Give the backbone structure.
Amino acid sequence: MFEVHSLKIGELYIPHGHGILRDPVYVWLVSNGEQHILVDSGMPDIDEVRRSLKVNGKGGGHAALEAALKTVGLTPKDLSFVIPTHLHFDHASNLDLFPDACVVLQRDELFHAIDPTPTQRIYFRRDIITNLINRKRPLQLRLIDGDLTLMDGLQLLKLPAHTPGMHVPIVTTKRGKVALVSDLGDHYRYWFPADPRATKNPLRFMAGSFLPGPIRSESERDWSAAMQRVIDHADIVVPAHDSRIPKHMPKDWFAIPDSTDGDIGHEPPED
């Protein structure tokens, strides 16, 4: 049985219409006391994000990630595996902190990062690709094709949707199975678009359905089928950029927040 800690390492302030979308950036520490596994490795230092993407925010980089790991009593050397859900810059940076850990990645995701869908070129960084290519295989890099049971209680589902090689970890805890869904639905509103607890603007006509995200490599039908596959395999979902997610599972446990209170997406950034 595993425990899962949601570790916030920064925020991105993404231009959205006439305002901004304030996205927290998390990584997840999955541990059974013997194996310590990191799901996603977060964003670069915000100064680098400003320089390369002209996007504001705070945190990120080595310092923020090391500080987050310290809160659960770990250092980068304690990690045995790193599992990027996909290779976008806010999910797969900082891999150089873990030279001895084994990075587990879908082969299709690495190929897509090298030659991405044109609309996604901005999200992939050369330093991430270089780090992966330079890793020794199979000790420091394991390329997989499709679903994989990495170990008892930890399964990876390959779910092409947001990117062609995205995969979602399904983690078994004492209270049930957690899906760390990353950007397959990065806010609760994508999973529960008609529920007023998930969104301040419920789409009643979408009751019982999913809302595919705007950045995708596959069709809306494929995306919705991928989300349904997650629901069929897990008890709760944990979106990547929603501030209301459980912070320590199974201690914190809910399928959907009680309300939209605490959803910082459209709140002004803190000073």
In short: The mean pLDDT is 96. Residues 102 and 139 are 6 Å apart (CA to CA).
